[in-house]
Structure formats: C-alpha cells, structure tokens
Amino acid sequence: MSDLRIQYDEEMVGASHPTKDDTLNRLALVEADTDGHGTQRFLKVRASAPATAAGEGVLYAKTAGGAAELFYRGEDDGQEVQLTAAGLAAAAPPGFLSGLAPSLSAVNQLTLSGGAVDIAGALCRLEEAAAKDFSSLAADAWLYLMAAAPASGVVLGVGNLSLTATAPAWDHGLAGYYDAGKTSRCLGAVRTDGDGDILPFICDGGWFMLADALEILSTTSPATTMTALSAGLPAAFQANRLVSLQGYIQKSGVASAGLLVGHGDTTQSSGAALTLARQAVDGQDGGGQGLYFSNASGQVKYLATSEAAAIIHLRGFRLPAGLAR
Amino acid sequence: MIHAYDPATGDLRGVCQGPSPEQAADWQAKGLTVLLGPAVSRERYNYLGGELTAKLLLTLTADRAVIAADGQDQAVVTVTAASTGWSDPEPPAEPEPLYPASVAVAVDGVGQEVALTQGQGTLAVAAAQPGRLSVRAADQVAAYDAGGLEIEAR
C-alpha cells in the first residue's frame, strides 16, 4: 500500500482545486466520502489484542486459523470475542447449537452431522459429517458426549470429541452443559450395556430415544401405593424431564391389573397417575407406553393395582435447552 | 442398581435403577432384603445362598408341538442344562460348565426329575385329555427356562 499522508515536500491543497490534486483530504477519502460519512473501514492484522480501559471497547483484526479475522474486546482488557472465522460468522447467541446430531454408525462408533456449536464464546464448526470410534467404555453407564474447543481456529475435528462418565453441569453464563474447566461443552449422552457397548439410539431434534429400552424396574413385588422410582435418566439432566416410558404387567388369577405412573412429586394417591399398562385378560401380559415428567431428582412415581409381575422401561427423554437442536 | 430378594427362598424379587429410596423402603417393608448390585436380568439371577448367582440355564425343546390326546402318543422333550454362570449373548469360556446330575421339570404343574448326562436328558410327555401342556423348570427360583414350552394334546 502506498503512503497517502501529505509529505513535507508537497503543497497543502484542498478539495476542488482547478489544476492540482487534493492532498489534504487524500488520506481521509480512502475510508470516507466527501460528506465525511464512512464508506468502509480497513483493519490491519494485529499480533495481539489492543489494551482497553474502562468505558471503551475495540474492534480489530487478528490472525486466527491462518487467516485475518475480526475480533472485539470489551473494556478493561476484557475477553476477546472472535466475530468471524474462515469467511463465516464466528459469534452466535450464547448456547447456540445447530446440527452436530449424533448417531450410532457402527459398534461404538458415533457419527456427528456437520453443524456449529458455541463453545465458551467461540462458534466452532464441524464442516462435514465425522465419525469417531470409542473403546474401553464403562459398562451400564450414561456417558456424556463432549466437544472441546480447538486449540486454534474454530474448526472441530474428531479429536475434539470425547465420551466421559463425569456429568457436566449447566453454566448460566455460557448457556450450555460444560465440564468443570468450562472448556468442553456437552452435545448429548449415550448409554452403554453390560459389555460397555453403546446402545442403539435416535437423536431426533429435541428427543433422545433408545432403540432398546432401558429397564428401570423389574419386580414381582411392585409397590401398591404411589412410590418414587428413579427414571434412569443421565444425572446431568435428569431434573424435570419429559420421559417416555413403556411398561408391562402380568398377574394370574385376576381379570385385570394396572400399572399407573405419575409425576415424581405427586402427593395424590393415584388420581394424578396415568395408566402405563393394563392387563385385560387373566394371566396375559398387558403392555403400554406413555409420556410422564420426572421431578427434580429424576424420579417418577408408580403403583401396581395389585401384587403382580411388573416391568417399566425408559424409552427416551426430551432433551433440555442447550442440547436440543 | 437396587436388588431386592426374598431371604427365605433366594428369589430375586426386584431390580430397579437407583437412587430409589422409596422403592427400597417399600421392598424392605415387605420383608425383602435390599442391597446394591450390578445391572442384571431379574429373571435370570437369584440369591440362593445369599449371593447373587446366575440361575441354572434350562433349554427345553420338543420333537413335536402336537400329540394325540390318547395317553399313548408322546412328544420327546429334550432338556439341556448348564449350571455355570453365563452372560448374554456369549457363554463364558471359563470355567468349564459343571453339569447337574438331574433337574426337576414340571409338566402341567407336576414335577418330575430328569436324569442328565453331560447336561442333557429327555422326557416323554403324553396326555389322556385334550389341552395345552406347559413344560417348565419346576424350580423357577433356581432355573431360568425362558418361558418353557407348550405342547398341545388333541
């Protein structure tokens, strides 16, 4: 770029001189029109963020991921926010999540669709579907799928994905489920069987459904008054969830028997409960399914109308904000 | 998981996800012994001897599903048993199965002992009256028979 400043050996010439070039306004006209209004703003790449004092912020360009990108820094040397990445917006509302839907593509192999996720203020992207294999997983456990922000840039790779049994926690400021260090964001959870293999599932927008339901109760001695029972949800987001349950009841010697389920905090004996399963013929299994709410402890309440063989399965649950797509 | 078993019979009466203190208290109030245990199928395990134990795995197959209800015609039920602990889907390679010498099988609720050789034996089933005959493990606490089988007498 040429140096447009007026030099010591030039004449000071204003606008509209009949024969000479305007030297006084030459520099300003690069970014402003003749009325003084700006037309554009060029930002040279800086090596680091400018310092800011109280009551001011700064926009600047800096290299990130090998390219010049736009950044903003708030007052008092505040947190840097990267606004662009590889030609796309790099900032989004806190907690933004689009795509990155997991599916089980092979034994212990998760495939995530492409998408974008806000990880601690950086809008990170998975540019195309990616598969990752997992091994040596804990048996009979909920495992949380975590995405760590890349060390540089905002493009996610399979190396940024992990499964952990450590439950993440909701962060109010970041509007997502994060690990203790707030560097990895939870994208979902999967369940393993007794061999440590991930159970087949479907993650459909706001729902997580198990292909093979998880048994949460199997008994020949069911409660006959409303009794709280763990719904078997992942601990991190078990509270106040809409859950899909299926149940069976079987008793010989009686014409009918019922299995009722209600909200985990209901104080009513059975009036607030809905029938999950009902045996209509003596001795023959009665089955059914329904939607219920867990309480803050992740529990529902149930009762059987009489001593019988009863089974309740968790089919799936509604994903909370921060995980639903 | 929370397990609840009958201390008198060793029958595993309940398995549920934890924490479920109300459910545990309900079982305790009924005289069941409540403790924490692994995720297992309630139907396939018991607490005989006070320890979680895989049930005797009993496989029942019949050469015929229908017999004549004349007291003479017979179906031959093959009884295969293994007393080793096992897991789904693959049985463990070690230890070698320890076969019981005999096992009690109930035909329409009437038990009879079936002698086993290398874990296998046979049982003849006949009926003088028409109806459906259930063939089950006689001791449902000790053995798992996956529902057993039925033979129809016509």
Secondary-structure topology with pairs:
The complex is a heterodimer of chains A (325) and B (154).
Chain A (H helix, E strand, L loop, with lengths): L44 E2 L11 E7 L2 E7 L6 E3 L1 E2 L2 E2 L7 E3 L2 E5 L2 E4 L2 E5 L2 E5 L3 E4 L8 E7 L12 E4 L4 E3 L4 E3 L5 E8 L9 E4 L2 E13 L7 E4 L11 E9 L6 E7 L10 E6 L6 E8 L5 E6 L4 E10 L7
Parallel strand pairs in A: 1-2
Antiparallel strand pairs in A: 2-3, 3-4, 5-6, 7-10, 8-9, 9-12, 10-11, 13-14, 13-17, 15-16, 18-19, 19-26, 20-25, 21-24, 21-26, 22-23, 22-25
Chain B lengths: L1 E4 L6 E5 L4 H9 L3 E4 L8 E2 L6 E2 L1 E7 L3 E2 L7 E8 L19 E6 L2 E6 L4 E6 L5 E7 L5 E2 L4 E5 L1
Parallel strand pairs in B: 6-13, 7-14
Antiparallel strand pairs in B: 1-2, 1-3, 4-5, 6-8, 8-11, 9-10, 9-12, 12-14
Describe the model.
The complex is a heterodimer of chains A (325) and B (154). Chain A has strands at residues 45-46, 58-64, 67-73, 80-82, 84-85, 88-89, 97-99, 102-106, 109-112, 115-119, 122-126, 130-133, 142-148, 161-164, 169-171, 176-178, 184-191, 201-204, 207-219, 227-230, 242-250, 257-263, 274-279, 286-293, 299-304, 309-318. With 325 residues, chain A is mostly beta strands. Chain A is elongated. The two termini of chain A are 46 Å apart. Helix content of chain B is 6%, strand content 43%. The longest helix of chain B is centred in the first third of the chain and has 9 residues, at 21-29. The A-B interface holds A 139-140, 194, 214-223, 225, 227-232, 297, 299 and B 1, 4, 11, 13-23, 26-27, 30, 32, 38-39, 41-43, 87.
